[in-house]
Design goal:
Blueprint lengths: L1 H18 L2 E6 L3 E3 L4 E9 L10 E2 L2 E2 L2 E13 L2 E14 L5 E3 L3 E4 L2 E4 L3 E6 L12 E7 L3 E3 L4 E10 L4 E7 L6 E5 L4 E5 L2 E12 L3 E5 L3 E11 L5 E11 L3 E6 L7 E11 L3 E3 L4 E11 L15 E4 L3 E7 L2 E13 L4 E3 L3 E6 L4 E6 L3 E6 L13 H14 L4 H41 L3 H8 L7 H14 L9 H11 L4
Parallel strand pairs: 2-11, 13-22, 23-30, 24-32
Antiparallel strand pairs: 1-3, 3-7, 4-5, 6-7, 8-11, 9-10, 12-14, 14-18, 15-20, 16-18, 17-18, 19-22, 20-21, 23-25, 25-28, 26-28, 27-28, 29-32, 30-31
Helix pairs in contact: 4-5
Length: 500
């Protein structure tokens, strides 16, 4: 009888132990290099348990990232059926110094369970040291380690994983590139080699200043899928975290000795549709720069010509990587509108070629634009030029001194008449423009100039926008019989109006 009672007590104790919930805390490592992250994982297993709480800091250190996982499993123990639940909370933080992670208390299956405190040791690692493990590796390479200021650099980050390893989660941290203008280039490459799957990411770098620099390493936290036995005898997929990092890299940036506007090897192209036009008809000019180098920080081109209305779109810059060589293309279009002859001035660019170490100067052409039926560059009538008046007076002085006073009187009369005529002309033009503006506002529903300002930069978006811009120019130039769909125009303006 005693033996039977003892057996029952042992069986009851075993069943209670199996049924009891559990709480466990673990870290991916207990010794960490200063500046690296630590992953703390808290796992709760039981039939009923509190939800793992929100944890924002650990011993005063801010938690940078939080990941939660949960799962359930139906189990049978000693003929008893139950549903067992698992919660996993992973906290990511960077300890500043050696510390102890405190114990956490969670109520599970009606009982408060506690995790064990965990001691962390923080050490100073070698600068730029590389960290990897048998399954994962990371590296970074530069296409050149000594460059001129403004010369583009391509940094390539390599992440390797064994092909047979299953990754649940990857958290990638790119290098800071804090002393460089940088952007990620399109076209991530993935391929297999010698039992590894390799991912490549390319970054374009342009130094902000000259000097010697150290690029911070690229880092990643990788969660490998592990099939792990849980309390109760069942298995679940859980993450096993690893921290890896590339080496840091040294780079020297030197400044070109000669003055320059661009660094690279570029060709200049330009296209103008005409050099002769009727008054207030648009003249289109397109300027392109293309070649090897970076054009992202190129100062935008502008024109300023007295008495000429100029529209331009935003410059479009595209870059692509060809065999570790950066090819860039810059294009900008301009529209000039005037009622008199004018000149589009030449633009000059000094390009420092980092291959030859020399500066090459390129320039656009200067275009003399002739406007049919317009004034000749806004010049005054010949009779009123300074040279004509001086010549006329000197001739009179030679043999007609007695008429000098009357000539002077005539001069002042002419000057007064010219001034009065100029005032009347300006006033008439203002009134006509005001009337025309009101007429256009009444006809179009709003200011046609505002519509042109909004739609012209988007002329390349669609044929409909291009057609509408041409109609607006026609109305602006006084052409008759031009029909504009007011509802369509309103819709286009609302669509492309810059958001504030």
């Amino acid at each position: 009888m005693i033996k039977i009672l003892g057996s029952l007590l042992v069986l009851l104790f075993s069943w209670t132990t199996v049924m009891a919930g559990s709480v466990e805390a673990s870290v991916d490592r207990t010794e960490v290099v200063r500046g690296d992250t630590v992953l703390l994982t808290i796992t709760v297993v039981g039939e009923k348990s509190e939800r793992l709480p929100e944890i924002d800091e650990i011993n005063g250190i801010t938690v940078d990232a939080v990941t939660r996982h949960s799962g359930s499993n139906f189990i049978q123990v000693n003929g008893q059926n139950r549903m067992e639940h698992t919660q996993t909370l992973t906290l990511e933080f960077k300890p500043l110094d050696s510390m102890t992670i405190p114990s956490f208390q969670i109520q599970v299956d009606g009982k408060v369970e506690s995790t064990s405190a965990i001691a962390l040791k923080v050490v100073d690692g070698a600068s730029g040291s590389k960290r990897k493990n048998p399954h994962f590796d990371m590296d970074i390479k530069l296409n050149k380690t000594k460059v001129y200021l403004g010369e583009p650099i391509v940094a390539t980050v390599y992440f390797r994983q064994r092909t047979v390893i299953d990754i649940m989660q990857l958290e990638y941290e790119k290098p800071e590139f804090k002393d460089f203008f940088n952007k990620q280039l399109e076209g991530e490459e993935t391929y297999k080699k010698e039992g590894y799957t390799i991912h490549e990411l390319n970054y374009l770098l342009v130094a902000k200043k000259e000097g010697n620099f150290t690029l911070e390493p690229a880092r990643a936290r990788v969660a490998q899928r592990v099939h792990q036995r849980q309390a109760g005898g069942w298995f679940a997929d859980v993450p096993k975290w690893s921290n890896i990092a590339s080496t840091s890299l040294d780079l020297e940036v030197i400044k070109p000795h000669e003055a320059h506007d661009l660094v690279g090897d570029f060709r200049l192209n330009e296209v103008i549709d005409t050099t002769q036009a009727k008054a207030n008809k648009p003249i289109n000019l397109k300027i392109e720069l293309e070649g090897e180098g970076s054009l992202d920080d190129f100062e935008d081109m502008t024109f300023d010509i007295d008495g000429v209305t100029i529209y331009s779109d935003d410059a479009k810059v595209k870059s692509k990587l060809l065999a570790k060589r950066l090819e860039s293309h810059y294009v900008k279009s301009f529209v000039f509108i005037a009622d008199h002859d004018f000149t589009i001035p030449s633009k000059t660019f000094r390009i420092f070629n980092y291959k030859t170490g020399k500066v090459k100067t390129v320039k656009t052409k200067a275009y003399d634009i002739k406007i049919e039926g317009g004034s000749q560059g806004g010049a005054l009538p010949v009779v009123h030029s300074k040279n004509s008046l001086t010549t006329e007076l000197s001739v009179v002085d030679e043999g007609h001194d007695k008429h000098s006073s009357s000539i002077n009187f005539s001069y002042w009369v002419l000057a007064a008449m010219f001034l009065l005529g100029s005032i009347i002309t300006v006033l008439f033009q203002y009134l006509f423009t005001l009337y025309q503006s009101k007429w256009k506002r009444k006809k179009l529903g709003f200011d046609g100039h505002e519509a042109l300002r909004v739609l012209y930069p988007n002329i390349g978006r669609s044929k409909e926008v291009e057609a509408m811009v041409r109609k607006l120019y026609a109305v602006k130039n006084g052409e008759k019989g031009v029909k504009i769909d007011r509802e369509l125009l309103k819709k286009m303006v609302n669509e492309y109006m810059p958001k504030r």
